[in-house]
Amino acid sequence: MSPTLLQDLSDVSYPTVGHFLEDGFVSPAIQSLLANVKIAGPAVTVRIADHDAIAMNHALLALRPGDVLVVDMGGDHQHAPVGAVTAAAALAQGAAGVVVDGVATDVLELRETGLPVFARGTSCLTTKRLFGTGSAVNVPVHCGGVEVNPGDLVLGDDNGLIILSPEAAGNVLGKALASDAAEPAILARITSGEPLESILAL
Ligand SMILES: O=C([O-])CC(=O)C(=O)O
Ligand SMILES: [Mg+2]
Question: Does domain 5-199 have CATH number 2.40.30.10?
C-alpha cells in the first residue's frame, strides 16, 4: 500500500466513491453511533462465535495504531461485543475505529470516548468470557454483506461504510478526487441562479 493512500483516501468525500463503484458498500443498517466521524484505516478482523468475549480480547491485542477493528458476529445481532471497556482498550491501542456487524453497548460511554464505533444498533445484552474455540482473529470475515480481508481499507463516516482492497481503493482514488474538485463549481453555478437546463446534462 502506498504510504499516502490512506491520507489521500481520507481527503475524498466517501459518498463520491459511490459515484464510481457498486461493490464494497456495507449495509446501511450499520451506522456510526457517534456524530461527525470520518475514519480511514486497514482492517483487523475478528469472527466471534457463540457470543464469546475472549475473541475480542485477542483482537484488541492485535490492533496497531490506525487500524480499524471489524467484528463479524456471525449473524448474532443480540449480543454486544463492544462497549465502554473494549472501546477504551481499542483507543489505548490507537485504533481509528470499530465496526460491528451486530450491536454495541454502553453507548453513552462510547460517545464519551470519542472512538468512532459503527453498529446495527445497541443492546444491553453483552458477550461473555466463554473461552470457546470457534472464534478467530485476522481471518476473512463478512460485514454488512461485504467480504473483508485483513488489511482491506475501511472508510467510514456519518453516511456509512465502504470496505475496499487497497488495489480497488487506489483505482478509484483519482476519479473521486477529480469529482470532488469539480463539484464546488457546479454548486456555485446552481446557487448563482444559472438555468438548470444549462448545468444538468439531460
Ligand atoms: O463486555 C462486552 O461484551 C462489552 C462491554 O460491555 C464493554 O466492552 O464494556
Ligand atoms: Mg461494558
Answer: no
